[in-house]
Every structure is written in C-alpha cells, then in structure tokens.
Specification:
The chain has 460 residues and is of the alpha/beta class. Helices cover 31% and strands 22% of the residues. It has 2 domains: 279 residues, Aminopeptidase, CATH 3.40.630.10; 151 residues, Glucose Oxidase, domain 1 (3-Layer(bba) Sandwich). Strand 5, helix 5 and strand 6 form a beta-alpha-beta unit. Helix 10 packs across helix 15.
Length: 460
C-alpha cells in the first residue's frame, strides 16, 4: 500500500486563490475526538441514523420493510428542509430467507452458526445430508476436478485480514460472490463458506451471491469465523465430514423497490448538480447501522452543513438508493432515470462510520487547482490525499461512469468494519458519534468547495 502525501503549496497557487474565494462558506470547526459523546448524539447525523435504526429497523431490498423505509425517508428529508423529496420506483427480483441450520455429524457433532447468502437456493424442507469437501481458498475450488465436488457439500475457506482500507474484501469476497456458482457448475449439492469477515464471533456474515445464466441456484450459506476455523482444523487432521444442512429461502418474483431523491437547490439551478449517495436498504440480520444507515446520515448532514446560512452555487442532490445489497439495483435505476441530466461530480458513503483518513480525487485534467484546493483543506483537517482513481461505489458509480463525471472517494478507516459487515451485530451501539461527525465535517468542507466551483471538468 502506498502512503500518500500532501505537497507544500506556495501562497500564489491557484488552489489557495480558490480557497480564498470560498472563505465565506467555511464550516464549523472539526469535531474533536474527545468531544462529549452525549452532545454529539444530538447532531443531525447521529439522530438520523439512530431514528432510522430504531423507528424503521431492517430494510431488506424488495420487501415491505424497504418500502416503509422509503416512506419514512421522504418525510424525514422534507422535515430537514430538502426540496422535492420523492420516491423513484423500479422493480427488482425478490428473495427472502427461511429456516437456516447446519450440523457437523459424527463423533464430534457440532451445530454450526450459519446464515444463507442472498439469492441462495433452497434445500428440501427436511434438509439434506451429504459429505463435505474442504477447499482452503476459492482458487483451490476453481482448479479442482468436478469429480472432487460432485454430490458433495463444498466448504470454501479464506484468510481475510483487517486492513485500514478494507482492501481484502475484493479478492476474498469472490468466495461469496462467485464461489457458489463455480461449485454448482461442478456438481456440488450445496456450498458453505467461511464468512467474509475479520471478527472472531459466532455471527455469520451474509451477502449476495451470483448465478450466471444457465447455473441453477443451490443452497449457499456463510459459516461464522470460529466455526470455519473448527472445520479447517478438522480438515487438517484428515476428518471426513458429513453435514446436515437445511436452508429454505425462496425467490418471490418481481418486487417493488425504489430510490429516494431530494435536493438542496443551488444559486444557479442551470449548473449540473453534485450527487451524494448512500443506500437505504440493509440486510435483514440487524438494523443496518453501519451498512448503510451511517452513510445516509453522513451525506445528508454534510449537505445541510455545507449550505447552512448560505446556499452554494450548485444544487446538491442526495440519493438514498434502494436494492444495493442485492446487486446495485438502485444505482443502476438512478442512472437510467437520469441519463439525460448531466451531473458534475459524484460521491458516496458506504463503508461504515469510521473516521475519514484519505481522499482520492478524480477530476478532469483542467481541474488541478480545484483538486489541490480540496486536498489543502482536507490536509488541515488531518485527511491525506490518496493516489489512483476514485471509484464512487454501487449507488453513484453507474451514472458517474456513464457520464464521465468527476468522483471523490472519502476513504474511511475500515480496520474494524468487516467485524460487523452483514452480521447480526450491525447495530447503532457500534457507531462512535465523534467519528461520525468527523465524516460530516470533512464531507461538508468538500461539498462547499465543489459546490461553489463554477466549472467542474469531466474526466477524459
């Protein structure tokens, strides 16, 4: 991992001139890490995520709970003063979970803590019992002969470790995203994976899996990390496993979902807006506090803070997308609905509530001064500038890519994010109010700078 640095800037740089031009729009001082927690629980962001998790709860995409969340969101955004909060509906495939249980059989019989992966197939109501074959990684499964898999329950292990940038999720997450389909194509009757997580609790991590055309879904579930380590230990000792598995989720057909969209109008409504996104849906194991209630709280509170007392030049649009957890349906639907409407810049918050430590700024080639201005302000707040290309995320990435809009990633400390991600432990008490407010403060500073930029060049 490369360590980014902020280069010293001379007093005559265009970046400092740009910063000076927006000095009238400076935000309140950055919240201190030692600020009283009770006071910080009265901030807009914390109250928003607290109310979302306590008044709405879990919000599985394509279900009545997600529909209730959309109605709640429209009312809340209206009460906060956003213009024209509304729902933009679309349809997505429905799926709900059912009974979930698994048991290692034999002399050392052990009940496993499991949860079905999103879009898992089902066992018969009475379950199945079959021999299990152990693979130390997804790559090991990919090169295994079909004869080693056919008629068996496949177990896929992995070695994901905690990292500040969460970088392990991409490669290790393939065991969940693609592992079940590979196993099914080789004749497996079911798949269990070690949870894609970095905790050591008996809380399994769910998440969606994919089935390419022509591959029939088979039962697929995640096993808690301690249970996965037990399986690995037994495999190392040559134990031949038999597993009894019952998973009874079901596909419910085309189901209603939707995005919630609202604006803070800018002084010049003819300019393309700034899009800030999050996702409203959550998995159904908990209340979706860090994934992604915190993100919706951050982008919403930051938009309000950036425009408090004086509107910025550009409209700031808030997108609370639906259907992200099941495959980015909301972001894709937004891109289709707004294809003819140019967007100047897109940002997304969907990596929890940890402090922002780095910003990756991808602007058009003509916008070096704007990028330097953003980096300089964030440097004052303890946030370094990163290298590489900003990605945006599932909720804003579709339209940003199609329109070649500028993108800024505000990267959060994800060291402990995958301890909680997609688990029953994703609850409000895991959010540190001071860290949450640090996100709002840094985001608000960026939004004031880009919101007052008269020109934002597209990426090449």
């Amino acid at each position: 991992m490369r360590v980014a640095s902020i280069q010293p800037m001379r007093k005559t740089t265009p970046a400092l001139a740009l910063l000076a031009s927006i000095a009238a729009f400076q935000a309140p001082a950055l919240a201190q890490a030692d600020a009283p927690q009770d006071a910080l629980k009265n901030t807009t962001a914390y109250k928003l995520v607290a109310d979302l998790t306590s008044q709405v709860g879990q919000r599985l995409a394509g279900t009545p709970r997600e529909a209730y969340a959309r109605q709640w969101a429209v009312k809340r955004l209206a009460a906060l003063g956003f213009a024209h909060p509304h729902i933009e509906p679309y349809t997505m495939p429905g799926w709900v979970r059912g009974e979930e249980k698994a048991m290692l059989l034999g002399a050392a019989e052990q009940k496993l803590a499991i949860t079905a992966l999103g879009d898992s197939g089902a066992t018969p109501a009475g379950g199945i019992t079959a021999p299990m074959v152990y693979f130390a990684s997804f790559n090991a499964l990919k090169v295994a002969p079909d004869s080693a898999v056919k008629g068996r329950i496949v177990f896929i292990d992995n070695a994901m470790q905690p990292l500040q940038d969460g970088g392990g999720y991409g490669p290790y997450g393939d065991a969940r995203r693609a592992g079940p389909a590979v196993a099914a194509s080789k004749g497996a009757v079911a798949v269990l994976i070690r949870s894609i997580g970095t905790d050591h609790n008996r809380d399994p991590h769910t998440g969606v899996t994919g089935w390419p055309k022509g591959v029939t879904p088979i039962p697929a579930a995640a096993v808690s990390v301690p249970d996965a380590e037990l399986i690995a230990l037994r495999a190392a000792h040559g134990v031949s496993e038999q597993v009894a598995l019952t998973l009874t989720p079901r596909f419910t057909g085309p189901s209603p979902s939707g995005n919630v969209v609202a604006d803070i109008p800018g002084r010049d409504p003819k300019l393309p807006p700034i899009l800030v996104g999050c996702h409203l849906d959550s998995w159904d194991l908990a209340t979706g506090a860090i994934d992604d209630g915190a993100g919706c709280a951050i982008v919403t509170a930051a938009a309000l803070q950036a425009t408090h007392g004086a509107p910025v030049l550009r409209t700031i649009r808030v997108l609370w997308a639906g259907g992200e957890e099941r495959g980015g349906f909301g972001g894709e639907a937004y891109a289709k609905a707004h294809a003819g409407e140019p967007h100047a810049l897109a940002m997304e918050s969907d990596t929890g509530a940890g402090r922002v430590w780095q910003a990756v700024i991808s602007l058009g080639a003509a916008d070096k001064a704007l990028g330097d201005a953003i980096a300089a302000r964030l440097s004052d707040m303890g946030v370094i500038r990163g290298h590489g290309e900003a990605e945006g995320g599932e909720d804003v990435g579709y339209i940003a890519h199609e329109q070649k809009a500028a993108v800024i990633d505000m990267r959060q400390d994800m060291t402990h994010y995958f301890d909680l991600h997609h688990t029953p432990d994703d609850t409000l008490d895991k959010i540190n109010p001071a860290d949450l407010q640090q996100n709002v403060d840094t985001w608000a500073e960026v939004l004031k700078i880009v919101g007052n930029a008269p020109v934002i060049a597209r990426q090449s």
